[in-house]
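dumping this here before i forget
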Amino acid sequence: MLTPAQLKKALKEHFDAELARDVQWICDTVTEDAEYHVIGPHYPDDPVKKKATAQGREAVRQLWINYFKNFSSYAIQCDEKDMFPLAGENNENLIFARVSITATPANDFEGFPAGKPFSYKTGALCSFDDNGKLTMETVFGSLGQVLMDFRRMREFLAESASATKSK
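structure:
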């Protein structure tokens, strides 16, 4: 089991790798079977159900490659005062983080113009193995994901309307 200081150090390294836009370094901070979950809105009856946003190190690699392609800058800030190690059941190494992000779309993105940075705050619950490698990250309220999920919700409504009309 990691100490609170070790958990904060492991989380800081993971976030530093994201801030550096270093995909290999990010991958080096996660386990082979790491899971990323990014929680956003959805319709319960939408058959396109989301599971893990990324399952496994290679999926994490692809997630960040795509993110860095879509955002010309992506600055994550999480100071130590915003990191909260939690006493997990079953000897889980859990830590919650309050995170500030400033991202600049490389192209127009869901109504945000290319080149114009936007900022938002989010929260992340992370789990690490005893070696300090991230096993799971669940992000709550990531603006980019919420916007993409809203797009899917509009698509689902359009699909539902056209399916109803064709009956």
